[in-house]
Amino acid sequence: MFLLLPIYSLSISTFPVLLTCLPPWEFSVVGSVDRKLSDLERSVSNLTESVSLHLSKLHEKVGNLETKLSDLKRSVLNMTERVSFHSSKLPKKVGCPDGWNLHNSSCYFFSAYQASWYTARDSCRSMDATLLILTDEEEWVFVNIMSVGRPFWLGLSDERTGEWEWVNESPYIMNRSKWMPGQPDNWAGHSIGGTEDCAHITSGKLNDNHCTVAYTFICKARPAPN
Ligand SMILES: *[C@@H]1O[C@H](CO)[C@@H](O)[C@H](O)[C@H]1NC(C)=O
Ligand SMILES: *[C@@H]1O[C@H](CO)[C@@H](O)[C@H](O)[C@H]1NC(C)=O
Ligand SMILES: *[C@@H]1O[C@H](CO)[C@@H](O)[C@H](O)[C@H]1NC(C)=O
Ligand SMILES: *[C@@H]1O[C@H](CO)[C@@H](O)[C@H](O)[C@H]1NC(C)=O
Ligand SMILES: [Ca+2]
């Protein structure tokens, strides 16, 4: 019979009456919407929280990475500095003049022309070099190979004192196994007179000969920095 009341006559006080008159399934629908809404709100706020948590963690990580990156940049810079410092102390790349052989950080000149021992000595000097003084076995081996089949004057003579010495006046220590059999013999049969006071090497063996004989010769020089 209340359904017959005109709309305007519905006062606030009539609503509870109205609601209480709603069928029970309507109540459960409103309640579940409410619950769903608050669940949604909770999960949105949970999500917001976890997003902001992740964001702050991300910021932290980015910060750490930036620190590591700048550390890395610094150490690369440091390393670069140290490499260039050390490489400036490395021996310079060396070069020999054209026509000279580079061997174990020295330059060797094997002349194509022949000259007396004296001229050979002076030619080497005029090229800021020395008629060859052999100092170690390794160098002997090199010269043995290079002197195959051809005599070369060395900076070795006994003319000055009667004792074999190098051209820089350092003593030569006799090693007979480096001489040809029966040498040095100081042979005196040369038609020009005199004996044999200068040493040459041929195929790795030494012999004394008259210093005026014309032979090819070997000069040795320090390499020039490029
Ligand atoms: C919020 O999220 C965490 C982990 O993701 C979960 O264990 C927790 O139950 C959630 N809380 C709510 C109210 O959804
Ligand atoms: C560069 O590295 C060396 C050795 O690791 C260290 O002693 C030096 O302090 C560093 N210099 C700079 C400018 O970081
Ligand atoms: C190079 O020469 C040095 C100095 O004369 C010598 O000690 C060294 O054994 C030589 N090394 C080589 C590989 O020729
Ligand atoms: C003498 O020369 C030989 C042959 O080159 C060499 O093997 C030996 O070590 C040398 N001896 C000395 C004491 O230098
Ligand atoms: Ca001789």
TrEMBL record:
A Pfam family that the UniProt record links to this protein: Lectin_C
A GO MF label: carbohydrate binding
PROSITE patterns cross-referenced by the UniProt entry: C_TYPE_LECTIN_1, C_TYPE_LECTIN_2
InterPro entries hit by this protein: C-type_lectin-like, C-type_lectin-like/link_sf, C-type_lectin/snaclec_domain, C-type_lectin_CS, CD209-like_CTLD, CTDL_fold
Entry annotated with the keyword Ion transport: no
NADP as UniProt keyword: no
Regions annotated as coiled coil: 55-82
Ranges of residues in domain C-type lectin: 103-220
Protein name in UniProt: C-type lectin domain-containing protein
Species this protein is from: Oncorhynchus mykiss (Rainbow trout)
Chain's gene name: LOC110537384
